[in-house]
Design goal:
Organism: Candidatus Electrothrix aestuarii
Keywords: Coiled coil
Order of helices and strands: EHHEEEHEEEEHEHEHH
Protein name: PD-(D/E)XK nuclease family transposase
Number of helices: 7
Number of domains: 2
Distance between the termini: 102 Å
Length: about 290
């Protein structure tokens, strides 16, 4: 059967707008039980060119109540960001800074307001240079700097200023089904070649039974006219962004080539100056020797 491709921002947003599905997917990714999940889409527009066209990229923010193994509960902010290009990293950094400075990302405990820890989940459309697994978990750990001993504690001050993250590489999902999470994320797997990238073929019978509502939600998305139209717009703008990336790459290569040429000329000139100085010293030495005779 065919489902809408969740790599498209509009489809991804449609999928995660279902609170039950979002809760199950995020719980599976972070490996913790989410009791309550409040969803609020955050919309940012980045200019594609000097004209009137812009690309709207959704970062999804959630405030979650997570149940701990000891039965206690904690309130955290979960942000999900999707990137199509490696250059999106600066937007990630800027957005993360805004999350830390957001005065609403707090919870009340007694008479005190405490900062909610932030957990980031990144869906990457590009391939990383050195990490080649579908899902990478990045965790904070505390160590005694003098002994190297890991400290089995958590501190509010540190938790408020640092964060864990999960990095999902869509390109690494292909044929990876090693655990339940990778099986569920199979809906993001992009075939090597496809006539219509808006839709993906998937076998519901091979999908984990307890997560098949994900499949049904993506089938609904495929039938939504507004979703289909927005996917067309995304295609056009992503092509423009891709062209811009290629132009920038060519420009950067040209600059690097010119810099190397200048460096080579500088070295050549330096070598000539050194040879000239050596010859000058030799002449002066010969004159000195002749004068002594």
């Amino acid at each position: 059967m065919q489902i809408a491709n969740p790599v498209y921002d509009v489809v991804f947003k449609y999928l995660m707008a279902d609170n039950s599905i979002a809760k199950k997917i995020i719980s599976l990714i972070i490996g913790e039980e989410i009791e309550n999940l409040d969803f609020q889409p955050t919309e940012y527009s980045d200019d594609v060119d000097k004209g009137n066209r812009s690309l709207t990229v959704y970062r999804l923010d959630f405030a979650a109540t997570v149940r701990q193994p000891d039965g206690s509960r904690k309130r955290i902010i979960i942000e999900i960001q999707k990137a199509k290009f490696a250059t999106d990293i600066m937007r990630f950094r800027n957005y993360l800074g805004k999350q830390y400075s957001n005065k609403n990302n707090v919870y009340e405990e007694g008479n005190r307001s405490k900062a909610c820890p932030i957990l980031s989940i990144y869906f990457l459309g590009h391939r990383l240079d050195n990490v080649h697994v579908p899902v990478t978990r990045v965790e904070r750990k505390y160590y005694d700097n003098a002994t190297g001993e890991e400290l089995p504690v958590r501190e509010e001050f540190i938790e408020s200023l640092t964060h864990d993250s999960f990095v999902i590489q869509i390109s690494e999902l292909r044929r990876k089904r090693r655990n339940l999470l990778e099986k569920v994320l199979a809906v993001f797997e992009q075939p090597a070649s496809v006539k219509t990238p808006h839709f993906l073929d998937i076998s519901e019978s091979e999908y984990p039974a307890e997560y098949r509502e994900v499949i049904r939600r993506l089938i609904q998305a495929a039938a939504e006219p507004q979703v289909r139209q927005t996917m067309d717009v995304e295609d056009e703008i992503i092509e423009e962004l891709g062209s811009l990336e290629r132009i920038i790459a060519v420009r950067d290569k040209t600059i690097d080539d010119q810099k190397r040429e200048l460096d080579d000329k500088d070295r050549e000139l330096s070598d000539k100056n050194k040879a000239f100085d050596d010859q000058k010293k030799l002449i002066e030495e010969l004159k000195r020797q002749l004068g002594e005779k």
